């Protein structure tokens, strides 16, 4: 019994490693494959049977998409990037501001229709975005905000807000109400009590809500592909379509643009990951 | 330091009154304990004084000023919460100095007063820790430190010891009492623990169902409970009770048929034929051969259920008049369950309550 106990432990340890490895592979390999493909010539990408070991790595696709000749596969990367950045950042900031106000109100106050409103928020998440694209298109066309940053920011704020409020509500709920009261007794105005005591305690959670909102806007494709058409507002995910033409798909260029799109999202996630982890494993705010 | 006055204070949640127009005057530097069963409105009353709860009717005065419409920050009160409510993202020093920082005091001033509070409460080595790195007792002390740095007019405590284990609770109780003797600030202290109330209070305020039932010094309340509720609530072990009727010549006939002889002044006070509840504290009963009490004595017999030895005395539980009674036995001997004992009742310190109104007679 004693001996088998030891071997069983080792066996279980290996199982865990293999399990983790398989799971991570499933998550990472497609991404890695994209990165790898962006550095490989199209012949190698499309080779059949697949060439597993890269023979020739170069920056040709990147050079091509940044070149000035559309015939070479150039795309207005910089415009797309700028649009994506402006739209995602602005809509995230607005969603966070409104989300904080809303989340705080839901967490701290009781008011008429609160539950109904909350349910409404959640139900709004059940409607697939694509189903909204036609009505939205018509409304936006009437308002003349098709193909504008403003239009995209508006739709992304609306898209993100329910989830942002829901998340932030949860984080404020974890901050004991007594802390606000203690602060008020210590001389704070309600405004000071919020910014000096409650906000610092919820800010990890708010940061993680921000990441979710940013990534949703940054990666959103379905609505953007309907509501944008030119460099005025086209975002990176929509830009990926530039590589498809009637008869061919420029896989290499597409992968290169995809990498350009993934890198900022990864960077941002790394920068705030400390907060993200703290936010997601919240629960330690006890006086 | 300040007086606190409540005048017909009402708290209403929607259509429901939870505090029914209470009146109370608290003097300079007095230590007043609000005590009562769960849900009787103690916290609500305290929070109305703090400004954390709106006052639905009547007036709350601190000193000469009506504070009904002042926000908490303008009332100059400090509060210690049941779960301490320390700011988790600030060190102990920052927690202590927070109110002074908000009041825009100079750095030197803040440091001086934080150090002073830390010295009073023995927080010296903990100043750089976060609340999460402190034990329950230490947090409690920091919460009290945070309350005293501001030199408030009134301290408010809402069950500050109920999250501590029994031993620490006793110890902190002593510290709170010492603290009050040192700073002499008016204290309003909420608890549902009658022992805390007895040991700490200058005056006890007993509440029930949103009313004040009795106000008095601990001794006064212990010896002269206004009604059956107070009598049962204060004192440990709880008062022994039996039903009976006052007959002629000062005889009290109990429901089980026993007849006790009332002390002359009580016999004169209570009219013949009154249906009463008899209340006898454990201290006012003596097992035959184990101590003598008073000069007016009635004797009863009962069968023992159980004894609880406490060392120099035992608690003896026995069946009497349909309920379980208890007495203290000094110089205890072994008593087997089921053994019949003879007990002497000190008729001078028994209590009689009107059976219907429950008022003390
Ligand atoms: N927000 C509220 N809405 C409605 N009723 C409330 C609210 N807060 C408190 N109450 C009611 O007011 C009454 C008094 O509550 P309070 O908290 O003052 O009791 P307490 O004496 O402090 O009791 P405990 O010893 O349990 O703390 C209770 O019956 C409670 O149910
Ligand atoms: Mg309470």
In short:
The complex is a heterodimer of chains A (287) and B (361). In chain A, 74% of the residues lie in helices and 0% in strands.
Layout of SSEs?
The complex is a heterodimer of chains A (287) and B (361).
Chain A (H helix, E strand, L loop, with lengths): L1 H37 L3 H5 L13 H7 L10 H32 L5 H13 L2 H15 L5 H25 L3 H9 L4 H30 L2 H6 L8 H4 L11 H30 L7
Helix pairs in contact in A: 1-12, 3-12, 4-7, 4-9, 5-7, 7-9, 8-9, 9-12
Chain B lengths: L3 E10 L2 E11 L4 E5 L6 H9 L6 E6 L2 E2 L10 E4 L11 H11 L4 H15 L14 H13 L5 E5 L7 H18 L2 E6 L2 H7 L2 E6 L2 E6 L1 H6 L4 H6 L6 E7 L4 E4 L4 E3 L2 H6 L5 E6 L4 E3 L9 E13 L3 E8 L2 E8 L9 E7 L4 E4 L7
Parallel strand pairs in B: 3-8, 3-9, 6-7, 7-8
Antiparallel strand pairs in B: 1-2, 1-4, 4-5, 9-10, 11-12, 11-14, 12-13, 14-20, 15-19, 16-17, 16-19, 17-18
Helix pairs in contact in B: 2-3, 2-4, 3-4
The complex binds adenosine-5'-triphosphate (ATP) and magnesium ion.
Net shape of chain A: globular
CATH architecture level-2 label of the largest domain in chain A: Orthogonal Bundle
Q: How would you sum up the major sheet of chain B?
A: 6 strands, mixed
In terms of per-residue confidence, which ranges of chain B show pLDDT below 50 for 5 or more consecutive residues? none
Mean pLDDT of chain B: 91
If strands are numbered along the chain, what order do they take across the biggest sheet of chain B? 6-7-8-3-9-10
Cα-atom radius of gyration of chain B = 24 Å
CATH topology of the largest domain in chain B: Rossmann fold
Give average pLDDT of chain A, whole number: 87
Fraction in helix of chain A: over 70%
Order of helices and strands of chain B: EEEHEEEHHHEHEHEEHHEEEHEEEEEEE
CATH homologous superfamily classification of the largest domain in chain A? MetI-like
What is the CATH architecture descriptor of the largest domain in chain B? 3-Layer(aba) Sandwich
The total strand number of chain A stands at 0
Give the terminus-to-terminus CA distance of chain B: 39 Å
Largest sheet of chain A: none
SSE-based structural type of chain A: mainly alpha
Number of helices of chain B: 9
